[in-house]
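Why should sequence recovery work at all? Because a backbone constrains its sequence more than one might expect. Tight turns favour small or flexible residues, buried strands favour hydrophobic ones, and helices have their own preferences. The token representation captures these environments compactly. In the example below, the structure is given first.
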């Protein structure tokens, strides 16, 4: 006798998957070695967030036989040179980038690459600035400037200290309101506090957290697989913890598309003299004019140039 059930993948180690059935039980499942989804070249055919059909065999083993169409998915390339990609999660409503101004430092190029990539995937992005308890006066001013910049681009921002997050805090409340009825992927450099935030919102330790290396002021890649958690105070809110991202590639984007993923640059570019302006050297470029007049932040323009540079290099691969 064969049996089938439908469920949601909530954990993936690469070789096995935890599937939450519609009935509310969690089953350990496997995928046959030759299982592929057409059109996607990835190292993992099934990812956290996938809605799947599972076949239960008489010997008690569970096999994923079908993956429902995805509304979206976030990919990480295994290395910049590889064509194979790793699907971090599927069917998500938001990607949240956890940013620390310090310990470890997150630079604006990293933030802007992340935001541009989220735009390319058409997944709304939010920024959560963490470890505000560690900031000195100067760093606090810098944080305020970052928050003002990204709010002006209509990205929601939150400032928290994940280690002292209290339900009475206003930031805790607004974060919970935001997470309501959604699946949110937490990402950011190793050590920024993704697992710590998750544990704080879940109310007890579900995810392992790591120390910041004293020598390098960086995280140590504590989380090694993706897992999805339901918040106990709001069963409609899900958070997905992912391994720290070393670098976000931009190689899927065509060179001329990159500016579309920078909201500020894109909206200004309609006033450029040439429709195919790359905003680098062309006369009559409204974008460069706006940068000079501080209507576009120079950090944003630098990030744009940096992504453009990657594309030029990748042509010679
Ligand atoms: N002072 C302070 N420390 C924090 C805060 N949030 C996290 N930390 C510490 O930062 C370290 C790293 O936190 P993790 O939650 O493991 O970081 P992660 O982003 O999950 O890292 P990976 O799993 O390696 O990607 C831990 O020692 C946390 O206690 C905060 O708001 N303030
Ligand atoms: Mg972690
Ligand atoms: Zn231009």
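From this structural description, the recovered sequence reads:
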């Amino acid at each position: 006798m064969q049996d089938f059930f439908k469920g949601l993948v909530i954990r993936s180690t690469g070789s096995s998957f935890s599937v939450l059935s519609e009935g509310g039980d969690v089953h350990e499942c496997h995928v046959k070695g030759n299982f592929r989804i057409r059109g996607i070249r990835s190292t993992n055919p099934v990812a956290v967030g996938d809605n799947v059909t599972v076949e239960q065999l008489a010997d008690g083993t569970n096999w994923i036989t079908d993956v429902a169409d995805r509304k979206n998915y976030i990919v990480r390339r295994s290395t910049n040179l590889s064509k194979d990609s790793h699907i971090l999660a599927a069917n998500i409503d938001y990607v949240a980038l956890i940013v620390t101004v310090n310990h470890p430092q997150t630079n604006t190029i990293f933030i802007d690459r992340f935001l541009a990539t989220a735009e390319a995937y058409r997944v709304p992005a939010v920024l959560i600035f963490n470890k505000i308890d560690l900031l000195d006066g100067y760093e606090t001013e810098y944080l305020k400037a970052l928050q003002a910049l990204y709010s002006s681009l209509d990205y929601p921002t939150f400032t928290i200290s994940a280690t002292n997050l209290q339900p009475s805090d206003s930031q805790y409340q607004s974060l919970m309101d935001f997470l309501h009825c959604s699946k949110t992927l937490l990402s950011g450099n190793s050590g920024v506090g993704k697992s710590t935030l998750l544990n704080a919102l879940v109310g007890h330790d579900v995810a392992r957290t790591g120390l910041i290396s004293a020598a390098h002021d960086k995280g140590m890649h504590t989380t090694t697989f993706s897992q999805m958690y339901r918040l106990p105070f709001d069963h409609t809110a899900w958070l997905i913890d992912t391994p720290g991202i070393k670098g976000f590639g931009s190689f899927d984007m065509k060179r001329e598309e990159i500016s579309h993923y920078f909201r500020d640059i894109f909206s200004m570019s309609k006033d450029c003299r040439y429709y195919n302006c790359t905003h680098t050297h062309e006369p009559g470029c409204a974008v460069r004019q706006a940068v000079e007049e501080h209507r576009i932040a120079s950090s944003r323009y630098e990030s744009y140039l940096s992504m453009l540079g990657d594309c030029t290099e990748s042509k010679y691969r």
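A few observations help interpret the result. The first helix runs from residue 108 to 121.
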